[in-house]
Amino acid sequence: MGSNEGVAVRDIPGCPLCGVEGRPLYSDLRDRYWDAPGSWSFSDCPRCGHIWLNPMPEPEDLPKLYGSYYTHRPPAPTMPSPVRALAIRAAFVGLGYDAATSVSRRLASLLRRVPPLWDGFAREARFVRACPGGILLDVGCGEGSFLRRMRELGWRVVGLEPDPRAAAVARSTAGVEILEGPIEGTDLGRDRFDAITMSHVIEHVRDPLRALRAVAESLKPGGTFVALTPNAAGRGRRVFGSAWFHLDPPRHLHLFHPRNIHSLAGRAGLAVTRLWTSPLDALRVHHISTALRVHARFDLRDMSWTPTVRDRTFRIAEYGIAAVRREAGEEIVLIATKGASL
């Protein structure tokens, strides 16, 4: 065990997923967005392509990486445009929420036929279908905004948040049950939840296999698990390398490829029903990664930037590329259920 500017760290020479000795990938990286200490490096696996932070912070020092993180304050209220609000409502109809009018049924059918539109609006419910009376767990719930939305859609909701400051914000703003602690060490109960979601969380977890086993154990038979995570095999990382927006040292401990996260889910006792990559985030990826190439820093506290023509062109091109090379999207979306063996 060593120290990285006051953060206790441990070398992880072998791939955390398959054990093969890793290769140095990126080095001498500092926090680009907040104020975490340390100079950080990533390794990658020559067999499965997994990328991990190496050395990796010890569990007791992980809070030092989140000192000024965005989840420590209530979210700013936002109001979608009337057109976007209508499309979101239609996507909810397509997922089984709300009574459907003829207009919303037609619009939901249209969204289903255009994957980029469906992806953009159905993710407001993280692709989770309605389940009257069901109970949903959001792992890494942050300040609780997703919990509030799903409660409005009829779910009984529970949040799990390892960061005490974020958990306190979620309790005060969402007014729902918030469990506090890491998923690997929290008793969630067996066969308790009808749905479990992890949006951009598994890349922060020190032991992703143990985390997914906890999901599999606490998910009811027939329940739904949805995970969204950055795609290390995507176009953004290939174009921007160490300046890729989603690299996010030192908070992102793991970065997955579609194939290795599919395999990991199976090892954990989950049966993957659908997996795809989405270019939706390519606009933000291009804008911020371009800034990182020049300045090595971007202030995520101010997201009022206006997309450039190049940002928009990059995303349009990525949709075209992803139609041919399905691993090209910036984000992995994985949907699974409990495996037959559990």
Written description of the protein model:
With 342 residues, this protein is an alpha/beta fold. It has ten helices and 14 strands. It has helices spanning 82-94, 102-113, 115-122, 145-152, 164-174, 208-218, 235-240, 258-267, 282-295, 309-324, and strands spanning 2-4, 7-10, 23-29, 40-44, 51-53, 56-57, 135-139, 156-161, 177-180, 193-199, 219-230, 254-255, 270-278, 331-338. Strands 9-8-7-10-11-14-13 form a seven-stranded mixed sheet, sandwiched between helices. Helix 5 (164-174) links the parallel strand 8 and strand 9. Helix 1 packs across helix 2 and helix 2 packs across helix 3. The model has no long low-confidence stretch (mean pLDDT 92).
Q: What is the mean predicted local confidence, pLDDT?
A: 92
Number of helices: 10
Number of strands: 14
Distance between the amino and carboxyl termini: 36 Å
Write a concise keyword list for the protein shown above.
single chain; 342 residues; alpha/beta; seven-stranded mixed sheet; 14 strands
In short:
Helix content is 32%, strand content 23%. By secondary structure, the protein is of the alpha/beta class.
Secondary structure blueprint with pairings:
Layout (H helix, E strand, L loop, with lengths): L1 E3 L2 E4 L12 E7 L10 E5 L6 E3 L2 E2 L24 H13 L7 H12 L1 H8 L12 E5 L5 H8 L3 E6 L2 H11 L2 E4 L12 E7 L8 H11 E12 L4 H6 L13 E2 L2 H10 L2 E9 L3 H14 L13 H16 L6 E8 L4
Parallel strand pairs: 7-8, 7-10, 8-9, 10-11
Antiparallel strand pairs: 1-2, 2-6, 3-4, 4-5, 5-12, 11-14, 13-14
